[in-house]
Amino acid sequence: QTPFHHQVEITQSFPREGWVEEDPKEIMQSVYECMERTCEKLCQLNIDVSDIKAVGVTNQRETTLVWDKETGEPLYNAIGKCMLHLNKHMSISNKLTKQIGGLNHKTGLPISTYFSAVKLRWLLDNVEEVRQAVVSERAMFGTVDSWIIWCLTGGRNGGVHCTDVSNASRTMLFNINTMDWDPELCRYFDVPIEILPKVRSSSEIYGWMVSSDYQRSLCVRCLGDQSAALVGQMCFKEGQAKNTYGTGCFLLRNTGTKPVMSEHGLLTTVAYKMGKDEPACYALEGSVAIAGAVVRWLKDNMGIVQSSSEIETLAAAVGTSYGCYFVPAFSGLYAPYWEPSARGIICGLTQFTNRNHLAFAALEAVCFQTREILDAMNQDSGVPLTELQVDGGMTSNRLLMQLQADILCMPVVRPVMSETTALGAAMAAGAAEGVDVWSLSPSHLPHVTCEKFEPQINSDESEFRFARWKKAVQKAMNWETTEPSCNCPGMQPLDSLSYLTSNFLLQL
User: Fold this and answer.
1) Is 205 exposed, middle or buried (0-12, 13-18, 19+ CB in 10 A)?
2) Labelling 117: which of 98, 146, 447, 487 has CA 20 to 30 A away?
3) Could you give the CA distance from residue 108 to residue 34 in angstroms, rounded to a whole number?
4) Quick one: which of 223, 184, 246, 288 has its CA closest to 504?
5) Alpha-carbon distance 369 to 308, whole Å?
6) What secondary structure does DSSP assign to 147-184, as a single string?
7) Can you name the residues that pair with 250 across neighbouring β-strands?
8) pLDDT of 432-460, one tens digit each?
């Protein structure tokens, strides 16, 4: 049960094409505000805040930053999870890396600017403050969970510098077999291993809060956002899966205690490790770059909708895209293609097409991308899913959920609490306090299932629309074939990564 919640939107900046940055200080301000407002509301409800036992942190796993441990100041903005531009040599090296499988075997990941190592390498090459902090042994690297935990537990006055296995596994510096930072990977990316946080399990006491009135009762743990959603959906058994609809889409399937390497463009990731002495559980993951972000684009860039909720009204008014297909590859395509040169296209336009059809096509695009990932996941696992559990902010859009059921030709199940990411983080925190998380399952909590969306079109129509989508995707491929010039003073393109990646290939 959720007595109360509070949320604060964080400002994003877009300093150049393909980049998303956030202010680390603003991130912490939003954390403090959410905690303060929530505690105030609990007091109004006559709930004693001293009964709170733990704080669970969940976060976008690939958001990357470096800060100064002596001053406590960030040395650059947090770099989000949009692809950076790579030159043609990097693209060639990426394909070769996929073929030899060396990097993939250690990390479960392809070389991509989506992950932290490449962003960190850019910071080391281009931000003088970062270079100087490394030389003087003042630099701390982390995904955003590390920054939040460090600040909550004291910051420069004894703050804990750590992360959990689910976040570490998204850096391209972590070996998912040894469950530790890999010296060889750090050497290839020329990253000093000393600046990396200590890796902990997803459910243990990291430290105690010293930044609130409730410090004596609050200890801190963390879990990456998609792993938290997997836990929140209670997908504890091998073969169970969930799809989260947020800024992007993330379909995860629990593969148990052994990593399963994908042959169809998916990622192998650490799902969670519920305790220091517990085994790690792994997942196959398909990542879609643009889901809810396409609605924001229609609103902020194109002015087609005035609010996010309006897209459902517009799309429902026509009930069809009228043959219009939208591939929102604004910064390339993620799973199963991993093609950074792809760019967004809208095709199939006629004189009859209007904004309602574009709104419908945008929602369909989210569903088609999920279908591509689900097909790849079924091929890798050999055991097709029979229904899809969903969560995330976009699941409040009933038309989207119905479209998803139609395009997948299977039921889509939406829980009462759509923000299961927060629920999963709370469950992991509770597990460290002795709550028997593993005894929970969807069957024990029948009220969790709010609504089941059954397919309402025949499979032939679904396959026809999906085939047209695939045709549109092919037209979006290889659009960006050259590295654009960087007009930002002092900022260099990622040329050094070509050497690093080639060096990695030769030595492996």
Assistant:
1) middle
2) 487
3) 34
4) 184
5) 20
6) HHHHHHTTTTTT---EEEHHHHTTSSSEETTTTEE-HH
7) 244, 287
8) 777 776 666 555 544 455 789 999 999 99
